[in-house]
Write a structure and sequence with these properties.
The protein contains five helices and 48 strands. It has a 22-stranded antiparallel beta barrel. Strand 18 and strand 19 form a beta hairpin. The radius of gyration is 28 Å and the shape is globular.
Length: about 775
């Protein structure tokens, strides 16, 4: 009897509490094409009640009945680039509200952007060290050879250093390039560069959204130390068929999307192919190289609660050289070539469990491989390597109360590494024997949970999380805890202070051979001797929003220390060395700095100014005589100025100016002679400075792009625009490599810095119908 009484009281309490709130939930989408609007804001005007949609466009907002003045209440939805939309919601326990926003045709005609609630929300959000760039803001940016590249735009943000000139390398807050987790629809992309790293593998026409996180990582992200780049593909226009594309100096693109079943299912297919080989052929030159990308996505709305998605990406770099094309007929036939490619597949199920809980279940497959082939007469050689992932992941968002959100989930991935597979035939096999490297397996898992809650009426917001991760190897098991915390304090309506801490662990690493210039870097798992890399990062930030000028300002200070970093001895050949573990050493690293960002995303003039002041060091007992030395991409100053201006209805202009301190190297400063027993009687020994003791010269560059839009004619199906641009307008040389040359009097030697690109004009045509 007592148990029945207690259960009745409990049931009365939860139903009573439930009756005191109205929970509205649903998806927020673009009304013109059905694409989800990530992180759109739903709120009750004049109150503190509001919520942003998650990364799938789902939201759940609880409104206490005390906020109602009658039986209805007004709820509004805001998103950058869209007019505010209002709804009336009845006072009841649950109310399903799917929101469709449409861009204002009149505003689009003048290219004005409506008030950006997202910019103001950045102040009140506990997340820091992150930024988001919608794809529609990317197309107008200046580019190299007319090929707009999202990675190069990421490199313009504070805290992100570029590698070599024109490359896609990213070095985030003192980290290395392999410490960035790049996701395409939740699948890992291991190689992000085409054309030896000068262009990224991401076709902007196939993409919907991009988010970069540099610190204070949410608990659902892990596996890398320095950053997360989360890229989402388009889902396809669910209302009508649409074709977009572009023709540039380097490549062409074509995207087709439309409904399979109107407002029920849709698809998108996007392809890109470079014709650099054909351009060289037309110029009478020979360069048998090209790359291509193919993106595919389909989605199906099974019910109001269930949606299914399948996405896939395939991309390859191909070089095929047949010596008979260029050699004399008397020479022995020979050939050379390589392929380098990515493949990803994601099958995803979104389910609204109830009005407060959302789940996402993903099955993920990804593969990265390369092979190098060579043939001379009857001699043949093939070198291959690949890494393959097969994984499952499930995430839950639970909107516990109007001021309290819970997120939790788990993932499991099997990594299969096949390095250094060699096949030879002919006389060369006597010197280079065939070998079939045994596959290396590692099983990586993670369980995670996080909480985001407001305190004292929204004055404080606290986000906490814990990630339990590990890797199972045949000879060892690694386990680790990765705590996360972020705290936001509102100074006033437009200013906030933020603090964050996060620990990250990485259970694989990338090793590069200093003796091979081809893109043949190898991914390896941790082993019983090579421990997982770890990082701890503290962040202190000040965010403010200047409402009068619609400007968002962010200042962040960070300190990060890293353990078990990977290095190897110079000159070591890792490509054909199955005992690479003996050549690798582990050490420590530290990085710290200040980042400034001033950004405006509204009006005819918009863009940002970013500045980074940073330091990065390394400490390896077996390198530099055990002394601390500067990291290779330790660059003291980085400045980027990005500006977009609407001249009139038909002309836009964009410009980018960047300044960067030079990357570091270890110079030779002298030589000395040591007697030996050879005929020469002496051996020349070079003298070097400390490791990475000298920096190359700083560099700066101006890029510009003009966009000519079509006349605003009604019912015109084909809409095209011309892009006229230039890279490195005033021909400033950016050091790409260094070489030793004799001085003018030939009495000594000096270092000479060699640039890569000068002034490069570009023209492109983009179309849509």
């Amino acid at each position: 009897m007592t148990r029945i009484f207690v259960f009745s009281i409990f049931l009365f309490c939860i139903t009573g509490i439930r009756a005191q709130t109205t929970t509205i939930s649903g998806y927020i989408t673009d009304g013109s094409n059905g694409e989800p609007l990530l992180f759109a804001l739903v709120y009750v005007p004049g109150t503190g009640y509001g919520i942003t949609a998650n990364e799938y466009g789902f939201y759940s907002l609880q409104i206490p009945h005390s906020a109602f003045t009658d039986d209805m209440i007004v709820v509004e939805c805001k998103m950058v680039g869209y007019p505010v939309k209002s709804f009336q919601v009845p006072r009841q326990a649950e109310f399903k509200l799917d929101i469709k926003l449409k861009e204002d045709a009149q505003q689009l005609g003048t290219v004005e952007i409506v008030a950006d609630a997202g910019q103001k929300a950045r102040v009140s959000n506990s997340q820091m060290s992150s930024f988001r760039i919608p794809m529609k803001d990317v197309s107008r940016m200046p580019s190299l050879l007319g090929e707009t590249d999202i990675i190069k735009i990421v490199q313009l943000m504070p805290g992100v250093q570029k590698g070599g000139e024109g490359g896609t390398g990213m070095y985030v807050r003192g980290g290395t390039s392999d410490q960035n987790l790049v996701l395409l629809d939740e699948a890992t992309v291991y190689n992000i560069g085409h054309l030896f790293g000068f262009f990224s593998v991401f076709n902007q026409d196939a993409l919907h959204d991009m988010t970069m996180i540099k610190g204070a990582f949410p608990a659902q992200y892990g596996g890398r130390l320095s950053s997360i780049l989360d890229i989402r593909m388009k889902e396809g226009n669910i209302n009508k068929f649409q074709v977009t594309g572009g023709v540039g100096l380097l490549s062409s693109r074509l995207t087709i999307e439309g409904p399979i079943i109107k407002e029920k299912a849709s698809f998108v297919v996007s392809a890109r192919r470079t014709y650099v080989d054909q351009v060289f052929r037309a110029a009478g030159q020979f360069l048998p190289y090209y790359f291509y990308d193919l993106n595919l996505k389909a989605n199906y709305v099974l019910s109001d609660r269930d949606r299914f998605y399948f996405s896939s990406y395939l991309g390859d770099d191909v070089l095929r050289f047949d010596g008979s094309d260029v050699s004399d007929s008397g020479d022995e036939p020979f050939g050379f070539g390589f392929t380098l490619g990515n493949l990803t597949n994601t099958l995803r199920w979104n389910r609204i469990v109830n009005e407060k809980m959302f789940s996402n279940l993903s099955l993920i497959h990804t593969k990265f491989d390369y092979d190098i082939r060579g043939a001379v007469a009857d001699n043949n050689v093939l070198i291959k390597s690949d890494v393959r992932d097969i994984g499952v992941k499930e995430d839950f968002d639970y909107y516990y109360k109007d001021d309290h959100k819970l997120s939790f989930g788990g993932q499991y991935t099997t990594h299969i590494f096949r390095p250094n597979v060699v096949s030879t035939s002919g006389e060369i096999s006597q010197f280079l024997a065939s070998k079939k490297a045994e596959p290396l397996y590692s099983n990586e898992f993670a369980l995670y949970g996080g909480s985001e809650k407001d305190y004292r009426g929204g004055l404080f917001k606290l986000s906490t999380g814990m990630r339990i991760s590990g890797s199972f190897l045949s000879e060892k098991i690694y386990l680790g805890l990765e705590p996360r915390i972020a705290l936001r304090y509102m100074l006033n309506e437009f200013q906030s202070l933020k603090f964050g801490y996060s620990r990250m662990k990485q259970y694989m690493h990338l090793v590069s051979s200093s003796s091979v210039s081809l893109p043949t870097d190898l991914w390896y798992p941790v082993t019983k001797n090579i421990k997982p890399q770890t990082s701890d990062q503290f962040i202190l930030a000040w965010h403010t929003y200047l409402e009068k000028w619609k400007i968002n300002t962010e200042v962040e200070a960070y300190y990060k220390w890293m353990n078990n970093l990977i290095e190897y001895r110079e000159g070591t050949n890792l490509i054909l060395n199955n005992n690479f573990e003996q050549e690798l050493i582990q050490g420590k690293g530290d990085s710290w700095g200040l980042e400034f960002l001033v950004q405006r995303q509204e009006g005819k003039l918009n863009g940002w100014i970013g500045y980074t002041l940073s330091w990065a060091t390394r400490d390896f007992e077996e390198l530099n005589q055990g002394k601390t030395y500067w990291a290779k991409y330790d660059r003291r100053h980085n400045i980027s100025i990005v500006a977009n201006y609407v001249l009139n209805r038909r002309w836009d202009v964009s410009a980018v100016w960047v300044y960067s301190s030079g990357s570091r190297f270890t110079p030779q400063i002298g030589q000395y002679f040591v007697p030996n027993a050879t005929l020469t009687g002496a051996e020349i020994i070079p003298i070097y400075t400390d490791r990475n003791a000298v920096s190359m010269s700083p560099s700066h560059r101006l890029d510009i792009n003009f966009v000519l839009k079509p006349r605003p004619e009604k019912n015109k199906k084909l809409k095209g625009e011309w892009h006229f641009g230039a890279y490195n307008v005033y021909r400033s040389t950016t050091p790409f490599r260094i070489q030793i040359v004799p001085t003018e009097n030939s009495l000594g030697y000096q270092y000479q810095q060699i640039g890569l690109f000068g002034f490069i004009p570009s023209i492109a045509y983009n179309f849509k119908f």
